[in-house]
Amino acid sequence: MDFERITELIIELEIDDISDAVKEALETDGKDPYDVLNALTKGMDEVGRRYESEEYYLTELVLAGETMKEAFKIIKPAMAASDKSKEKAKVIIATVRGDNHDIGKNLLGTLLLSSGFEVIDLGMDIEADIIVEKVKETGAKIVGLSSLLTMTVNQITAVHKALEAAGLRDKVKLIVGGAPLNMELAKNLGADDFADDAVEGVRHIQELAES
Ligand code: B12
Q1: What is this structure's pTM?
Q2: CATH numbers and ranges of domains, the chain
Q3: Does 170 sit in the ligand 1 pocket, CB within 6 Å?
Q4: How far apart, in whole angstroms, are the C-alpha atoms of residue 181 and residue 46?
Q5: Could you tell me if the CB of 96 is within 6 A of ligand 1?
Q6: What is the pLDDT of residues 103-154, one digit of tens each?
Q7: How far does the centroid of ligand 1 lie from the alpha carbon of residue 196, in Å?
């Protein structure tokens, strides 16, 4: 199974074939899970491009998201198995309330898992109060929020304030990501940190975990 074929399967929305293709790449061909992930992400980039140029519509986007999820299910354990040595810090991840984009968050979660973090993924469209409850319950010191929509970035402030109200704000580092954000905006909204992509996000989270 070559990488180009995996990229194609995402672009062609082949949800029934993706799991076997990823399995074959990992198990039969012994490919590095990171390289497979790279091939999947390339496919998703092209899907995003086609959506923007109106070759694809919402239906295709949803299916592309579902196809990525099937692939992640196979790739996650392979990535976790490739690095078990590090001490596990807990990271809570979620997409903010009102936002149903989770592909970027899932990618971050997969990479964090493979970097030795314990990942508590709350899902998408998540209320600030639920995040605070999870922080209390798990003692996680890092929260990563995803916001892809301009109209939902203010939910970052809602989480920041809810943590403050619970007396937890100084115990937790809040990092955010998503296309409408940048470092300056993230800080104005109450976050501690921002990263442009998931790879950079993992690097920042490693630094936050050590600080
Ligand atoms: C796929 C997609 C969808 C899918 C989502 C499926 C899913 N399960 O996620 C569906 C079809 C559901 C969808 C719906 C909508 N979408 Co949409 N969608 C996209 C699209 C094409 C791709 C997003 C994506 O998955 N990219 C791939 C991932 C890997 O990248 P990413 O999410 O950016 O994440 C990376 C970084 O941002 C970062 N990151 C992300 N989160 C985090 C978190 C942390 C902590 C860190 C450190 C880093 C980090 O790392 C990731 C990987 O490197 C984008 C356009 C685009 N090219 O981005 C529009 C886009 C985000 N959508 C948009 C819109 C408008 C909508 C709708 C309102 C459309 C509608 N009319 O209904 C709805 C909103 C639904 C809702 N309430 O959320 C707009 C948003 C505009 C804006 N700025 O507000 C965009 C930009 C398209 C556009 N150009 O208009 N969408």
Answers
A1: 0.79
A2: 3-81 (1.10.1240.10), 90-210 (3.40.50.280)
A3: no
A4: 22
A5: no
A6: 889 888 877 876 678 999 999 999 999 999 999 999 999 999 999 999 999 9
A7: 13
